[in-house]
Prior knowledge:
Elements: H1 21-35, H2 51-54, E1 58-61, E2 67-76, E3 82-89, E4 98-103, E5 108-112, E6 115-120, H3 124-129
Parallel strand pairs: 1-6
Antiparallel strand pairs: 1-2, 2-3, 3-4, 5-6
Amino acid sequence: MIPVLAFGMSTPMAGQQEMNGNDRNAMEERDADERHDAPHIDRMPAQGLHASDLMDKKIHSRTDDEEVGEINDLVIDQDGRIIAVVIGTGDVLGMGEKDIAIAWDRIDRTTEGDEVKLYIDMDEDTLKEAPEYERD
């Protein structure tokens, strides 16, 4: 008996469904995600951001929508995950700014049109009392 696949037949056998190009691409992407060994990606993952989209982004207080600082830096762990954002806050006429590191999971993101807006559940007074982040 000769296997049917040896002849390159693409007709599905009983119990199989034929995949269209989109299904095949989705399956390949899922397989690459599971392997974590894909050599490249060709587009932004769903709900992803570029680091450049975060730099200098204003942070707002959830309670009153007031701007309380802006992102000066990102803290990334050894696995490449953002674990905190360094927020410059308390700036008065270019003087007195201090950096505070806020855990990434404490930052809420919303989208208004094409614009991403970032919120924290802290006001400016709370941030003034927070310990200053010191870069090693």
